[in-house]
Amino acid sequence: xxxxxxxxxxxxxxxxxxxxxxxxxxxxxxxxxxxxxxxxxxxxxxxxxxxxxxxxxxxxxxxxxxxxxxxxxxxxxxxxxxxxxxxxxxxxxxxxxxxxxxxxxxxxxxxxxxxxxxxxxxxxxxxxxxxxxxxxxxxxxxxxxxxxxxxxxxxxxxxxxxxxxxxxxxxxxxxxxxxxxxxxxxxxxxxxxxxxxxxxxxxxxxxxxxxxxxxxxxxxxxxxxxxxxxxxxxxxxxxxxxxxxxxxxxxxxxxxxxxxxxxxxxxxxxxxxxxxxxxxxxxxxxxxxxxxxxxxxxxxxxxxxxxxxxxxxxxxxxxxxxxxxxxxxxxxxxxxxxxxxxxxxxxxxxxxxxxxxxxxxxxxxxxxxxxxxxxxxxxxxxxxxxxxxxxxxxxxxxxxxxxxxxxxxxxxxxxxxxxxxxxxxxxxxxxxxxxxxxxxxxxxxxxxxxxxxxxxxxxxxxxxxxxxxxxxxxxxxxxxxxxxxxxxxxxxxxxxxxxxxxxxxxxxxxxxxxxxxxxxxxxxxxxxxxxxxxxxxxxxxxxxxxxxxxxxxxxxxxxxxxxxxxxxxxxxxxxxxxxxxxxxxxxxxxxxxxxxxxxxxxxxxxxxxxxxxxxxxxxxxxxxxxxxxxxxxxxxxxxxxxxxxxxxxxxxxxxxxxxxxxxxxxxxxxxxxxxxxxxxxxxxxxxxxxxxxxxxxxxxxxxxxxxxxxxxxxxxxxxxxxxxxxxxxxxx
Length: 732
Ligand code: MOS
What we know:
binds dioxothiomolybdenum(VI) ion; globular; Aldehyde Oxidoreductase, domain 4; 3 domains; alpha+beta; six-stranded mixed sheet; 16 helices; 732 residues; seven-stranded mixed sheet
C-alpha cells in the first residue's frame, strides 16, 4: 500500500480497540518467566555448548601471537576460534569496527577469541588461560584533547532527523553581532551506556550451509543482511529469530560480536553454541552514546524574539563511525531567521559510538534547553513564555515546509497549568522544605517522526483466529499489543482472537524497532495487510467490498451477516502487504513534541539531588495504546533523570577504555530515585503520518528531561551546571 496522501476516514478511526489502554499481551509471559530470551532458548537446538568471548586487553595495536595450548587442555573445552584463525571479516550495517578476524585491534575489548566448552564455567576458565602477545600502539582517547583537531562532518550524518554538517540560513554571524541580547555558552555530555537488562546474546546452529541465529536484536532484516556480508554467505541461508528482547535502547540495532562469534564457534564445534556477552563486554565490546561538547549561541531582541541561533557540536568516534547528531532539533524547534548548525567529528580510539536512546535529540536538548532557560533569565522572561514566543508552525530553515501537526504550545501551557508553574519563584535558591532547597524547571521535548517501509502477513483461520506475522520486534515497548489491537480493529474481532508472531526473518520485513519509528510504521504495515485480508474475505463471501462491515466477529454487507471464520471454512485466507511512503514527509515536517516539568530537592548541606515530581505532556499524534505509551514515556523520563544526574562512562584516557563497565559502577535510576511521574497525551491524530494517524512517542519521553532536571536544580540552588551528569560535587 502506497501512502502518499493524507489519510482519510478508515476503520482504525472506530477506536474500539486501538486507543484503549490495554495491558501488554506478552506481559504475563514476561512476569512469569515463560517468555524465553535468546540465551534461554534451550529447546530450539539439541546439544548446545557454551561460548565465552575474550576481549582485547589493549585499545589499539596488533596481536603478534595467541597461545591457546593451556586453554585447549582445560576441562570441557570443545573448540577455540581466535581472531588470528580468521581473515578480517566484513562490516555489517552501522558497524564501524570489525567484529572479529585479523590481527588489528581497533578498540578495547574487541573480540579476539571464543572458547567453546560443555559449561559456561569451563569456557570462561579456559578463556582466562589464553595468552595474548600484543604490540600496543598509541591511541587517542580524550575528546576534550582532540576536539581542536575535529573535522567538519560531511554529508548525511546518520539515523536521526539527519542532514549534513554545516547548515546555514540567513546570516547568523551578522544577526548575532547585531542582537541587543546575546548568549554564548558551552555544555558537555559524557559517554553513556545503554545498560539494557538483557545482554547481547545469541544461540547459533548450522544445518549444512544453513545458519540459524536465535538472538536479541531490534532490526531483523538488517541483521540478516549483515550476517550474510560478514560471514560471506547467502542471505537466503540465514534465519534470524528474536521474539523477546530484554531491552535494546539502540545497542541492538545492528549485529554485534555475540552473533558473529556464535556462528563461527558453532561451525568450529560442529554443534549449536550459545554466547552471551558479559556485562563488561556489553560496555566496551559493543557501542555507547558518544560524549559531546556543544556550543550554543542565541541572539534576541529585548522582547525575547530570537533573531539568531547557532548550535555546534563536537563528538568523537572510530574511523567510519558517525557523529552524535546533537544539533538536529535546533534546526526545527524555534523560530529565528538567522541560523547555524554544525557538527565536528574527532578521531577517537574508544569503543565505537552509535545510537542510544534518542540519539541526537536526547543529548542535544540537554544543551539547548538549558541555554533557553539561561537566555530567558537574561531577558527577564518566564522560560515557558520565552519558548511560546519563539514557536514556529513551519520548518524555520525551510519556511515553505509546514509542520504536519505541531502543538508544542499546547504541551507547554497545559503542563504549566497542571504542574503549578505559576507558583514557581523565578529567583533561585528561595524555596526551602526542611533541609531541602526546592526548585522547579521545565524544558521542551522534541523528537522526529520517521517513516519507514513496513510489511506484515495476516492469516484468517476457520476458527476465526487472526494471526499476524511480521519481523517487527518488541524490545519491551509493547509492539505485540499495538499490533494485535490494529488487527483486531481492522478485522472486527476482540483481542483474544488475534495471535501475533514477531521477530522471525521468515516473516515479512518490517520497519523494526528504533528511532521511535516502530509503532507507527509496523502497525501501518499490519493495517495494509489487513486491508488485503478484508478484500479476500469479502470476495470469498461474495460481499460487495464497498459496503462490507467487520464487527463483533462478523462480516456484514447489506442485510447479510456471516461469521468471520466462515470466510475461511474452505482454507485459510491470507493478506500480505507493506506500507510504503511517498514524499509526504518531505513536504511537511513530521515531529513530536512535549513539555517536561520537574521538581527537585537539593540537600542544603550535601547537595544530594532528589527528583520529587515529574510531568510530561506529549503531542505525538494518535496514541495507539495509552497504557503502553505511558510506560514508554515514563521509561524515557527515567532515562532523562539518569542522563541528568548519574549516567557517565568514566574514560581511562591513558589506556582507552570505559572503567565503570558494570551495573555497579555505571549508575542508572532505580525505583527509589523516581517517586512520582505523570504523563498527559494531547488528544490528536496526524493524518500525514500514516493510516494509523499515529507517530512515535517512546523516545519523546527522554528528549528534554535532562535539561528540565538541570533547570530545576538551578531554580533550587542558583548553581548553573553545564557539564553532565550533575553530580553533587559540581553543586558544592
Ligand atoms: Mo534507538 S537508540 O534508535 O534504538
